[in-house]
């Protein structure tokens, strides 16, 4: 039903910091030492709260909100390190997280080589797009979907012409780390035994972020 009202403000959630930041701290410590891990973790928590407070108003119940929360965790850890974590170092941390036993277990359960999981992904994309359409008051702040698949469940093919993660990074001067955040789309797809093909991201000044997701080999 179009025109549904929603509180536009993204509320603070400590859940994502509590879940993701300790795992990231573990891999920062493992790869780069305890001192740097402690600095990023301790300094990152208040930055995480500040980033959420200044985030685009995508709607409190936005089904895509978890993506913005997770980006705020990554941005906060990187910013708190005050230049001691390079983009490539953060890239290695994120790769390690997605290659962890926990993520591999979750990926196996959502294996995109199984037709029912691929179909569920496609339906989820359409449901997210419908939510945005039903809440026009926040369309200027949230992801703008354009769906190109035939909804037959064999591929997910879509693109965004706006992304609040991109908007927040530009607003906060985080363009150096933004492309690394965009790369997690590949890691997430690969963890689910899928294959992502794309040509552009907004984070690298492209006209859109495109997604062609298919079952992997």
Strand % is 5-15%
Largest sheet entry: 4 strands, antiparallel
Low-confidence stretches: none
- Placed side by side, the strands forming the largest sheet appear as 1-2-4-3
Q: Using the CA coordinates, give the radius of gyration.
A: 17 Å
CA(first)-CA(last) distance: 39 Å
The domain tally reads 1
Shape: globular
Give the rounded overall mean pLDDT. 94
What structural class do helix, strand and pairing data support?
alpha+beta
Report on this structure:
The protein is of the alpha+beta class and 217 residues long. It has one domain. 54% of the residues lie in helices and 9% in strands. It has eight helices and four strands; from the N terminus they run ααααααββααββ. Strands 1-2-4-3 form a four-stranded antiparallel beta sheet, covered by helices on one side. The protein is globular and about 50 Å long. The mean pLDDT is 94.
Topology:
Elements: H1 14-32, H2 34-53, H3 65-80, H4 87-98, H5 101-109, H6 115-134, E1 145-147, E2 156-160, H7 164-171, H8 178-191, E3 194-197, E4 209-215
Antiparallel strand pairs: 1-2, 2-4, 3-4
Helix pairs in contact: 1-2, 1-3, 1-4, 2-3, 4-8
Features:
217 residues, alpha+beta, 54% helix
Brief synopsis:
With 217 residues, this protein is of the alpha+beta class. The protein has helices at 14-32, 34-53, 65-80, 87-98, 101-109, 115-134, 164-171, 178-191, and strands at residues 145-147, 156-160, 194-197, 209-215. The protein has one domain.
């Amino acid at each position: 039903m179009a025109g549904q009202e929603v509180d536009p403000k993204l509320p603070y959630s400590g859940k994502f910091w509590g879940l993701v930041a300790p795992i990231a701290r573990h891999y920062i410590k493992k790869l780069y030492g305890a001192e740097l891990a402690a600095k990023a973790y301790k300094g990152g928590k208040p930055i995480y709260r500040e980033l959420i407070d200044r985030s685009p108003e995508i709607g409190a119940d936005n089904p895509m909100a978890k993506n913005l929360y997770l980006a705020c965790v990554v941005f906060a850890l990187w910013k708190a390190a005050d230049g001691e974590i390079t983009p490539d170092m953060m890239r290695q941390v994120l790769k390690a997280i997605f290659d962890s036993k926990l993520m591999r277990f979750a990926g196996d359960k959502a294996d995109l080589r199984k037709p029912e999981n691929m179909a569920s992904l496609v339906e989820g994309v359409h449901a997210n797009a419908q939510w945005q359409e039903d809440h026009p008051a926040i369309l200027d702040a949230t992801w703008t979907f354009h769906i190109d698949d035939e909804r037959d469940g064999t591929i997910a093919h879509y693109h965004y012409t706006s992304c609040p993660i991109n908007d927040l990074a530009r607003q906060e001067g985080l363009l150096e780390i933004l492309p690394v955040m965009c790369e997690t789309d590949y890691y997430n797809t690969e963890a689910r035994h899928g294959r992502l093909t794309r040509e552009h991201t907004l984070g690298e000044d492209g006209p859109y972020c495109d997604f062609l997701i298919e079952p992997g080999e």
